[in-house]
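This part of the workshop introduces the protein records we will be handling. A record pairs a protein's sequence with a compact description of its fold. Comparing a sequence with its tokens is the quickest way to learn the format. To make this concrete, we reproduce a full record directly below:
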Amino acid sequence: MRPFSTSRIPAIVWALVVLFLAVLVSAAGMLAWTTRKAALESSEEQVVRFVAGAEVALNRSFLSVDLMLSGVDNLLGLSTSMVGWIDASVSSNLLGVVTRGSMLVSVTALLDAEGRVLASSESTGARHALQLPPGFLQSVLAPTASGLLVSGPAVSFTSTRTVLYLARPLQTASGARLVGVAEVPVSKLVAVLMQGADVSGLEVALDRGNGETLLTIPDLGNEVQPQPVQVPQEPRERAWGVPARLSGVPALVVSRPLIYPGLRISASLPMAMALADWERERNAIAAVTLVFCLMVLAAGAMVAAFFQRITAARQAMAQSKATLDQALESMVSGFVLLDRRHRVLHWNRRFGEIFPWLADTIAPQLPFRAILEQTVPHHLPHAGTEELRQWVELRLARQRNADAHGVHEQVQPDGRCIQITERPTPEGGLVITYHDVTVLRRANAEIENLAFYDPLTGLPNRRLLLDRLGQAAVLAQRSGQLGALLFLDLDHFKALNDTLGHEVGDALLLQVALRLRTCVRAADTVARLGGDEFVIMLNELAPTGEEAARLAQRIGEKILGSLAEPYMLGQHAHQGSGSLGATLFGTTLQTATELLKQADIAMYQVKARRGNGLCFFDPRMQVAINDRAQMEADLREALAQGHFTLHYQPQYRLDGGIVGAEVLLRWEHPERGMVSPAQFITVAEESDLILHIGQWVLRTACQQLAQWQKTPQGRHLQLSVNVSARQFRQPEFVRQVTETLQETGARAHLLTLELTESLVLDNVDDAIGKMHQLRTKGVRFSVDDFGTGYSSLAYLTRLPLHQLKIDQSFVRNLGARATDDVIVQTIIGMGRNLDLEVIAEGVETQEQKDFLARHGCDLYQGYLLGRPMAVAAFGALLANSAA
């Protein structure tokens, strides 16, 4: 027989709970059903009792009115008199006496066959006809009518209340038919019906046999039409679930006929009203049942949870050892558990993998000292006996102080780094874990190397350099030994990268780094900032600035000489050079960033002198840099505020006619006044401002062209606009020019774009492509400063040019230098052979103009003919010329 399992107890508990709940719910349902049946029976008894009472009350009331109307014959002596004998006054008084004696009738009247009032219990009745319902008088006078008739609801003429008319036919001695009528207010009939009734929600209706409703309780007025009469065939039979007489909702309907044919009293009690009290009882039963069910469920859950916890605890205890063993075996760290006497209790597989020499000897209750004695020869293979013993004692001493030195690292003979963590147990034992952190330590070293060293050359990067430089600057100020900072930038490195590729460029940087290391001392620092920029920090050169500068210059010249030696970059031989900027540190306390900036500024001074040299930082350089920065800021402000204007220098034919003008940019500074382009164009070209300024000049010039096209003297004028190299090299340059011409409405063939030789020769194919695209639109091109280049003649025939402009440096020396005379003649002859216009700029004397004219120059521009002027002055010049 198998032992009883506690895991089955929760299922048994829940089965008992379900059974008890089923019994409880069934008992509650039976109780609710019983109370519902009792409620329906009680309501049915009340409705039947009410209908019986209402039937008796109505029969009695109608019978009393019928007797009163029958007695009118005897009261007025109608059977023994003629109609003409009836005294209205006397008869009315008699009727009034009879009416006042009735609790139900409000007015009694005697009418002839035509409906005229012969006598009335009202004092004014003889003068007013009763407003009987249509056809009611004829029904009373019908030959078949002999008893009491009841009319439909009507409104009383005198009281404006809803009334019923009860009438009975009468006859005089002459056989004339009269009608006795009694007016009964509906409200009095309602009072008779509802006397003593206390059934809530009861609906009562008095109907005629033809379905006409005489009165309803409650009064529906004209808003709702009563439902058709639906009653059982037997008069006293009752029915549940049929529509109520008034509201039409499911109800108990009880209907009985009155003693007068065609009249029936009906009472309806809606099911909802009949069961209202029962619903409250049902809800109470449901609530109590729900509470008991919840209590049973809670008790069952508590009992089941209790047994489940017991079962789970037993299972956890049964599986704890297996789980612990599995966890220990799956650990990535080695694990050893020692008892209070530091003997081995447990270990895992990873421990044996880390210390393979212990795999055959480790066993339970083995002293940890024995493990250390077997381990130390592998750590110190060449140590003596005493040294081995000291290592073991030191390791045990560290173990005894595990609270203070819980974590330490141990390097294995194979180079692995093992992190050892020792933690005491509550029983006095020890838990030792061995974690291999070799990969982590190598990763940390690599991260540190990436954070502080250049990955290509292995030199310190900017971060490490700034840290060392800051410390060196402080140390130099304290010790009085000055140092120097050299900023190196390789010359023409970008061209090497672009032509031979980045792999060759990287090879050059590696060789440069090697040469720099050989040129300095071990205490100095060589760093790479990025690209082709290197920084050399020279420490403790000399106590005086002159001596330190002399030593720094000697080392710098040594570096430049080393860099000038040929390089072998794979299959390519390369001859290089560098630009060195130098600054001293240690005289005053300066930040590393400031020192680096000073050396950078000095290096750019060398770059400005075509490189391959050394320059020391001078404070005046900083002033120039600041002025340049301020100039750039002012240019941005001028562009935003519209401080730029255009001046126009006229261009003439030989006969003196104006053919156009060259657009020249002018800057009206609010404080400096008119600023020469020579002062700001260079700054603009070295920043992105030249793009915005160039676009503004082009748009303004095209707008001016469009305005001149509207005047007779200006419609054929041409404008020459200088284009900077950066503006022309933009990929969107052609689109910008085309859109500007379209937006301003200027004619493209009147616009001449002046390009320098160096701009065209920098990228000939790109220049030719853009020029051809604009040439198809009609735009003309001119080579500005022609003759100053050295290889332009080779590409001249490929360029879609329209004009050559002779540089003013040649025009200035005409007649004074024979070589310039020959160059000018050659340019003019070349232009004529290539069918190009030739214009000379800088014509300042009549002799220069005559020389140019003799050799066939087409156009002229210079101070001799006209200076640059504002647009208004140029307009006046045009007007005078036309006159």
In short: The chain has four domains: 39-285, 331-442, 457-617, 630-882. Residues 630-882 form a domain with the TIM Barrel fold (CATH 3.20.20.450). The first strand starts at residue 107 and ends at 111. Confidence is low (pLDDT under 50) at residues 229-236.
